[in-house]
Write a structure and sequence with these properties.
The protein is α+β, with helices and mostly antiparallel strands and 185 residues long. The chain contains 4 helices and 6 strands; from the N terminus they run H-E-E-E-E-H-E-E-H-H. Strand 3 and strand 4 form a beta hairpin.
Length: 185
């Protein structure tokens, strides 16, 4: 029974780490990355669709993103979505493709982006701790219902703390590597 609770908590912590990786991919660094725009929502065909479903996104150069819509009629909607996003980029469209030139980041902009990274890392740390708290509550409930002993509860809590420490260490490592990537000139 304790194994089920621990396994669930561990999988939730791993999902939080993946969500962080996904979230940090949208933060701009000095280099172009498809992750920057691929999940940008575009209003097309009477619904909101992620950009990767509407266009081929490539990185032909270090600071250039090339967006080639599968259907030319979505070109304007894609350009509008990019302009309305918080990316601060100006799409240049030639009627067939959209080019996004990523300007070099200033030192102050890099510091702002590092702050964003730290905020997102802290949100995931809190999420991991919340998963730990929920698991502890479930374990205590099992002990209260006499389904596990006090010793089993204590051992399970120790294992849960090890899982939590490992997950937080991984989250911090993800954040540190993204910060280094953002600060890289």
């Amino acid at each position: 029974m304790t194994d089920d609770v621990l396994h669930l908590a561990e999988s939730q912590m791993k999902k939080a780490q993946e969500a962080l990786r996904h979230s940090l991919a949208t933060i701009r660094t000095g280099r172009a990355s498809t992750g920057l725009v691929e999940n940008l929502l575009v209003e097309a065909y009477d619904s909101m669709l992620p950009l990767y479903q509407l266009a081929n996104i490539s990185v032909p150069e270090n600071r250039l993103l090339l967006i080639q819509p599968f259907d030319a009629t979505t070109l304007r909607a894609i350009g509008r979505a990019i302009q309305q996003s918080d990316l601060g980029l100006n799409p240049q469209d030639d009627g067939r493709v959209i080019r996004l030139v990523l300007p070099a980041l200033t030192e102050s902009r890099r510091k702002e982006l590092v702050k964003q990274v730290r905020v997102r890392v802290e949100e995931v740390r809190v999420s991991v701790r919340n998963h730990r708290r929920e698991a502890i509550e479930e374990l205590r409930e099992l002990e209260h219902e006499k389904l596990i002993s006090e010793d089993e509860l204590r051992r399970a809590q120790e294992r849960l703390q090890e899982l939590t420490d490992r997950a937080i260490k991984e989250v911090e490592q993800i954040g540190v590597s993204k910060e280094a990537e953002v600060m890289e000139v």
